[in-house]
Structures are given as structure tokens and as C-alpha cells.
Design a protein that fits this description.
By secondary structure, the protein is of the alpha/beta class. 45% of the residues lie in helices and 13% in strands. The chain is elongated and about 145 Å long. The relative contact order is 0.08.
């Protein structure tokens, strides 16, 4: 796949479980349960209700506030009709004979005792109706006012005590392993959910069979490996295979990730390793699975800042526990990593991880099986051929294929389709391989023309060169970080590449730059990514693959990872003269392929113009349209051998007369 990038811009780990929460092994922690969430709301509601009830009293009628002297004057003036007198607090409330300034009622304060005889006589003389009212206090309100503060204070201290106990319990349990223990009934993943990888499943099945039926191995004297290390690129299904083991084993399966051992406290990792193995021994025969073991199994004493003491102590404890395995314990360790090169050598020696199982990227047949698994819960239309989808996804892992199927389903939903069609898979593959289309990027006519000739140069060289992968699609629509894209898909799986294939690959990468030079007589920044990839291929041809006559059959690998301390002070294992020869050979290879590409595009100049014009008109072309345009524009006038597609779908090399020739 070749691309034309845009113009460059101007210079310019988890906490411990809380109280009452489950720990890593699925059992609740020793801390107390938290307070119910409704309890504070209930207390607040009771308090508010009591105060509202006590505050709502009396009538809404307006009343006059009279002093006692004003009250006696009103009585003498025969203005008072009746009163209610409370001798406990001296409160007087009464009613006028006639409304006074719009009010009919009044209140006043009298003596905190019975009225005197003179006062009663005066009231009787004026005909005032006197009614004694003695108020009593609400016992519930009194109790509540005394008890509620006491309850709140006691509850606060109880809450503080429970919180302290929970924190202490968390500290006391910090050394416990966070491993999850699965029994035979719990896991639902089986080997039927793992498509392909027959040899891998066979070796894993031997381990499971040993734990379930150890007798037949002991009869013949065979000893099962104590540790199995799953190695492979990310997304190939290492963890899925381990989960399938949990479903197939029929024995306890103890699973944990490497990062669960690490903590900010010194010695916690080693304590958790001890607890992990103690848990597994109690359930033996059992399987211990450690995912991402490279997080604790890195080489000791390496790194820019020296070793990491806590991680190294954790690793030392794990090595000691694995050495403590006895033959009859019935424990097998399975670990997964995508970085076996950084693991400590002591971890990989016989007696610990005896066997390494490589989980590679799936082949064509395995991709078909994986796609069948992901097609189970999808509505797939009849125009989708699973073989075509698998053939167009070389180099994709199982996780990539799952993402591809999901993206296709999302495209079908956007189109309001009832099933996933072949067009959806095509768009999903472009989305995964080339990136998101950017219709907001508006190129002017000059940029569009440069991009069209650039991508046409890639397409022409990929079509006419014998060993290059066929062109699948060409577009000048801005996609991802590129302004255009030429996509090639291999017709069959390749596991090794010869020099002819690499030379043709360099020609395809240089085709865009050379096409711009031929047509416009200038160079642009559009070939930056092509040049980076081409230079890397040429350098590896010289340094690693021995494809240079001057350098000869010698190889120098790439530099090691600096964070491991292997190349902290990098020293070359070849002389300055050899370095100069390597640079000269890299330059020679690139210039040779550049001249070859120039001759090729000059020869097929009519096809270059035809493809670029079609790209400017349609913006996207597929491989068959590229072939038709080139054959129609060039015909047999260009001379020399070329590749043509026959009616049965095969290809062959023909001369300028159209007669087949030997390649």
C-alpha cells in the first residue's frame, strides 16, 4: 500500500477493594458494609417534619398585638367580647365586639397566674366571656429534641469506627493475591470458540489431558512441561486460548495479570506471588494463568535508572515458587506475552517455562475459520463471500478481523440495511487499512492533479511489474493522514520475499515521486512516506538480508531497546569503512530502482495520463479499471513484455505481439 501524505506544516494499576466489596478471588473482603444510602435522607426528613409541625399553629386571620394596659382599657371601653386566658404563660387571645381597623381578634400578655378578683370583676361587669385554656407540652417533641442529637453523635462515632476498621482490613489484605479462581462450571469459552491454530490447541490440550488423566503419562514415563509460554503478536488470541483452557480443563483455573502483583508498598508483589501459589496448591490439580507476564518478568538489573527492586523481588519470588514445584503437585503454569525478547533468561530455562508455543498471525484458511466465528451473530447478506473477505485481509490478527466485521455491521446500520453486504465489508476494510475519509479537506485543482499523477505512478508500476502485488484500489480522496492512496493486495500468502519482489516493491514506492518529476518537472513533499519506507527496505536488504554484492553475506541486526539497557551506549560491530559501504549500497539500490521506474513510466506514459485523467474524473478506481485503462491507452505499441489477465482469471506475460512468453 502506498500513500501520498499531506503537505507538512510550517515550522513551528487498580486500588484495593473497599469495605464490603469483593476481592480478586470473588469473596467479600473482611471490612463492614457501608451505611444504607437512604438512612441520612430518612433522618433529615424526620427533623424537617417535626419542625414544620410545631411551627404551624394559629389562624391566618390578622390579629392586633395589645399591651396589658391597652387590653384593660379596651375592656373598660366595652370593646372586648370574649377572651381565652392561659394562666401557665399569661397568654390572652380575644375577640372584639366590633371590628377595630378591620381586625376582629387580638392577643395580649397577662400575669403568669390566675387573674385577680378585681380583674375578674371588671371582666364580668363588662360582660366579657372568659375561658381558661391550659396548654401542655408535647412529650414526643421533648423526647425527640433530647434524643435526636444524642443519636446523631453516637452514629457519627460508629461511622468513624467502621471506616477505620475497613481501612485497617484493606491494609491487612494488601498482600493477598487478586487472582480469580474459575471452576469447571463457570467459564463459557471453549476450544470451539478458537478458530484455527490446530497445533497450538493440540499442545495446550496435552497439558489439560495430563491434569485430567495423569495416569497414562506416568505409565510411559512422560513428564508434562511445568510451564507453557504463549508467544505471539497482539490480538492473535493468546488470552482467548487461555480462557478456552479454563472451559475445557475441568480443573480449577487460577487467572491473574502481571500488573496485579505490583503495588506502591515494598514487598507486596512477593507476598501476592506466595498467596497465588498457596491458593493453587489448595485446589491442585490446577492451572495458573498469568497474562502479560512481561510486566514483572523483564530482565533484572536493566534499564536507564538501574533495576526496579520491587519488580525484581516479585520475579525472584516467582522463580523460587516455580522451583518449589513437585512432580506430584499437579500444577501447570500458562503465561502469555508479546515481548519474549525482554523476559529474564532464568524464567525461560527448563524446569520453569519448558515450552514456548508461538501463536502467529492467522493464515488464509485460519482467517476463514475466524471469520465464520464472527459471522455467527451477524446478519450477512448473500453477496458476501467469506473467502473473498479472508483473501483481502492478509496480515490481520483475530482481533483485527473481529473489528473488521464490526465495522462492516456499523456501515450497514448507517445505510439502514437489514443485513451486512459486500459493499459494507469493502468500506470497512478501507476504513481499517487506510483510515477515515476526510471530505472536509478541499484540495485545489493543482494539488488534485499532482495527487492524481502521484497515485497513477504507483498504480502503473504495480500493474506492469511482474513480481509486484496487484492493485486493488486507487483513490485521490483524502483518507486518514494521506491525500491519496494506492492499495495493493497479495493474491496468495507469502512467508518469505526474494530480491525480485523487493526490487519491484521499491519501484512501486518510487513510482509516485518519479511520475511527478516526469509530468511536472519538480518534486513535492507527497513522497515523504514512500521515501522513508523505501530507505528502510533498502537498508535492511544491505544490513540484514545480505542482498548486496559489495557487503557480502554479512548481517547486522537492528538496535536493541534502550529501556532494557542493551543499547544505552550504542557501539557498532562494524567499522567506519563498512558503514560507508552500507550507505553507498543503500544509495545505489535506490537510485537503480529510481532509474528503472523512470524508464518504465516513460514507456507507459500514455497509460499514466489515462489513469490520472480517470482519477480526476471519478476519484476512485479499482484494479480492473486500472488494467483496462492501461491496456486501452498503451496497447501493444509500447513494446516489450507485459502482464495480462486471461478470461479464466489467471495472468501471463506476453510480448509486444501479444504472444505468451516465459517469465
Amino acid at each position: 500500500m502506498s500513500s501520498r501524505p499531506p503537505e507538512p506544516p510550517a515550522p513551528g494499576q487498580g486500588p484495593d477493594p473497599g469495605p464490603g466489596r469483593p476481592t480478586g478471588d470473588g469473596t467479600p473482603s473482611s471490612g463492614p458494609r457501608p451505611w444504607p444510602r437512604w438512612l441520612p435522607l430518612l433522618v433529615v426528613g424526620i427533623v424537617v417534619a417535626v419542625f414544620v409541625a410545631t411551627s404551624m399553629r394559629g389562624s391566618t386571620t390578622e390579629t392586633d398585638e395589645l399591651s396589658y394596659s391597652e387590653f384593660t382599657a379596651a375592656v373598660q371601653a366595652d370593646e372586648v367580647k370574649s377572651i381565652e386566658y392561659d394562666p401557665t404563660n399569661g397568654h390572652i387571645s380575644g375577640e372584639y365586639r366590633q371590628p377595630q381597623d378591620g381586625t376582629t381578634e387580638f392577643t395580649s400578655s397577662g400575669p403568669n397566674d390566675d387573674l385577680q378578683e378585681a380583674q375578674l370583676a371588671e371582666l364580668e361587669k363588662q360582660g366579657v366571656d372568659v375561658d381558661y385554656v391550659r396548654t401542655t407540652s408535647n412529650p414526643l417533641l421533648g423526647i425527640l429534641l433530647w434524643v435526636l442529637p444524642l443519636v446523631l453523635i453516637i452514629g457519627f462515632f460508629v461511622w468513624m469506627n467502621r471506616r477505620a476498621q475497613g481501612q485497617m482490613g484493606a491494609v491487612m489484605n494488601i498482600g493477598r493475591s487478586r487472582a480469580k479462581v474459575y471452576n469447571a462450571e463457570k467459564p463459557k469459552t471453549t476450544f470451539a470458540d478458537v478458530a484455527g491454530y490446530g497445533p497450538v490447541k493440540q499442545e495446550i490440550t496435552e497439558v489439560v489431558d495430563f491434569l485430567k488423566n495423569p495416569g497414562k503419562f506416568k505409565e510411559i514415563g512422560a513428564r508434562i512441561p511445568r510451564g507453557v509460554l504463549l508467544v505471539g503478536p497482539p490480538g492473535t488470541g493468546k488470552t482467548l486460548i487461555a480462557r478456552a483452557v479454563a472451559g475445557e480443563a475441568g480443573v480449577p483455573f487460577v487467572a491473574i495479570t502481571g500488573s496485579d502483583f505490583m503495588e506502591m508498598f515494598v514487598g507486596v508483589g512477593a507476598a501476592r506471588v506466595r498467596d497465588l501459589f498457596q491458593t493453587a496448591r489448595k485446589q491442585a490439580p490446577a492451572i495458573i494463568f498469568i497474562d502479560e507476564i512481561d510486566s514483572i518478568g523483564r530482565k533484572r538489573g536493566a534499564g536507564l535508572g538501574g533495576g526496579h527492586d520491587e519488580r525484581e523481588q516479585t520475579l525472584n519470588q516467582m522463580l523460587a515458587e516455580m522451583d518449589g514445584f513437585e512432580t506430584g503437585e499437579g500444577l501447570v503454569m500458562i503465561a502469555a506475552t508479546n515481548r519474549p525478547d525482554i523476559l529474564d533468561s532464568a524464567l525461560l530455562r527448563p524446569g520453569r517455562f519448558d515450552r514456548q508455543i508461538t501463536v502467529p498471525l492467522p493464515t488464509l484458511e485460519e482467517r476463514i475459520e475466524i471469520l465464520k466465528v464472527h459471522f455467527r451473530d451477524k446478519k450477512i447478506a448473500g453477496d458476501v463471500k467469506i473467502e473473498t473477505v479472508a483473501r483481502g485481509t492478509p496480515g490481520m490478527s483475530g482481533a483485527d478481523l473481529a473489528n473488521l466485521v464490526n465495522e462492516a455491521a456499523l456501515f450497514a446500520v448507517r445505510r439502514a440495511e437489514s443485513a451486512v453486504h459486500a459493499e459494507d465489508f469493502e468500506d470497512a476494510r478501507d476504513r481499517v487499512l487506510m483510515g477515515l475519509k476526510r471530505p472536509s479537506v478541499m484540495m485545489n485543482d493543482e494539488e488534485k492533479e499532482h495527487t492524481a499523477y502521484h497515485e497513477a505512478g504507483h498504480a502503473i508500476t504495480a500493474y506492469v511489474l511482474e513480481h509486484a502485488d496487484p492493485v486493488h484500489k486507487v483513490t485521490i480522496l483524502p483518507t486518514g493522514m494521506a491525500l491519496g492512496m494506492t492499495q495493493q493486495l497479495p493474491e496468495e500468502e507469502r512467508y518469505a520475499h526474494d530480491k525480485h519482489f523487493l526490487d519491484d516493491m521499491l519501484c512501486v514506492l518510487l513510482g509516485g515521486r518519479v511520475a511527478e518529476e516526469i509530468v511536472f518537472g519538480s518534486q513535492s513533499t507527497g513522497a515523504s512516506n514512500d521515501l522513508v519506507r523505501g530507505t528502510e527496505i533498502a537498508r535492511r536488504m544491505v544490513r540484514e538480508w545480505g542482498m548486496s554484492d559489495r557487503v557480502g553475506p554479512m548481517a547486522w541486526g537492528s538496535q536493541g531497546a534502550v529501556f532494557l539497557g542493551e543499547d544505552l551506549v550504542h557501539t557498532r560491530d562494524y567499522s567506519d569503512e563498512t558503514a560507508r559501504v552500507i550507505d553507498e549500497e543503500v544509495e545505489r539500490i535506490l537510485r537503480t530502482q529510481e532509474m528503472r521506474t523512470r524508464e518504465l513510466l516513460m514507456k507507459y506514459r500514455l497509460g499514466l495520463d489515462a489513469v490520472s485523467s480517470a482519477l480526476l474524473e471519478h476519484e476512485t478506481l479499482d484494479g480492473l479499471e486500472i488494467e483496462r485503462l492501461v491496456d486501452g491507452a498503451v496497447g501493444y505499441h509500447a513494446g516489450g513484455p507485459r502482464r495480462v489477465r486471461l478470461a479464466d482469471g489467471t495472468e501471463e506475460i506476453v510480448d509486444d505481439e501479444g504472444q505468451p512468453i516465459e517469465p
